[in-house]
Amino acid sequence: MIPSAKIFAGRGTKALAERIAEAYGQPLGEVAITEFSDGEFQPSFEETVRGGRVFLVQSTNPPAENLLELLQMIDAAKRASAKHITAVIPYFGLARQDRKDKPRVPIGAKLVANLLTAAGATRIMTMDLHADQIQGFFEVPVDHLFSSSLFLPDIEALKLDNLTIASPDMGGSKRANAYGNQLGAEVVICYKQRKKANVIDKMTVIGDVKDRNIVLLDDMVDTAGTLTKAADMLLEKGAKSVRAYCTHGVLSGNAIERIENSALEELVITDTLPGSRESDKIRVLSVAEIFASVMKKVHHHESISGHFVM
Fold this sequence. Notes:
Layout: E1 6-9, H1 14-24, E2 31-35, E3 41-45, E4 53-57, H2 65-79, E5 84-89, H3 108-119, E6 123-127, E7 142-145, H4 148-158, E8 163-167, H5 173-183, E9 186-196, E10 199-206, E11 213-221, H6 225-236, E12 241-249, H7 255-260, E13 267-270, E14 282-285, H8 288-299
Parallel strand pairs: 1-4, 4-5, 5-6, 6-7, 8-9, 8-11, 11-12, 12-13, 13-14
Antiparallel strand pairs: 2-3, 9-10
Helix pairs in contact: 1-8, 2-3
Catalytic activity: D-ribose 5-phosphate + ATP = 5-phospho-alpha-D-ribose 1-diphosphate + AMP + H(+)
Family: Belongs to the ribose-phosphate pyrophosphokinase family. Class I subfamily.
EC number: 2.7.6.1
């Protein structure tokens, strides 16, 4: 008989971890965090993990303490003789730094991969990486899950006529095409030009959007500049309605204000990231069931290929 696995959470993703544990069918394990007056902290497992499998749930969004806390928990589990250590990272921070796009810059995603492996993680579980090739940065197994198992049924339930899937940039065309094939919908691409990060110079659309109900897809929404500009442009081009589905709701700066004032009818995100979602236009779907299901299959050495639908 396979002994039960244990699920622990970092402070940054505690609420989601509780939902995952509930869906898994067991309570979260006890972790104590000692904080020193200078801001240093030290996590400690308050129960044995010797010889077993542990799942450590923590997104690595800023501040950097979230990543450091996860690394320390991995190291603690390794030194406590855990046999399998799976870092469950719903949102993989620094994923946009997946290559050198100009001289003298780091490849942050590769650095994080090295740190997680060096700390002692034996498996990585994450969702909708900004770039698929980040999986190749690891020398341990990576379970790359997709939010499409949540988003596809939700889009179908809308029963939109003249449905068209749109990517807000060229990089998301593969994702948009996959959704289009699944839903039997047309696909259009928004083409944008930037002069600097988070600032769009100009944007146009490749494809016909007149009298169509548009669903924009992206892996994340940060400042919402691209998303809202795309929505406004598509409406100007004759679209009947525009809504968006984005896995990771970073929503930094004045993103919520932009969404409120945009042509978007609705923004659907998941709960991979914590934070306030105070807007009538924002709806949140939980990824807890997906992660719990895959974690259980991994623990029992069962196939998880059915979860890789995109």
